[in-house]
Amino acid sequence: MLTSVSGIYENGKITLDETPAVQKKSKIVVTFLEEMEESVISKRRLGSLKGKIGTPDDFNAPMDELNDYML
Predict the structure, then answer these.
(1) Rounded to two decimals, what is the model's pTM?
(2) So which domain of life are we looking at (predicted)?
């Protein structure tokens, strides 16, 4: 069985984000994904995409391709 648990390595210690469901002594493999910088979430500003993303006015309009399936 393979189980994945994320965590952080810092100052020679690994801190897991959750407790694994493994109940017995098990081999593990530690993979370092990338060096972490300041949290990406903290760099985001709420509302920064306002006006840049939207849906067309006819988004909910019936599609001609589906006329055969509509009642």
Answers:
(1) 0.42
(2) Bacteria
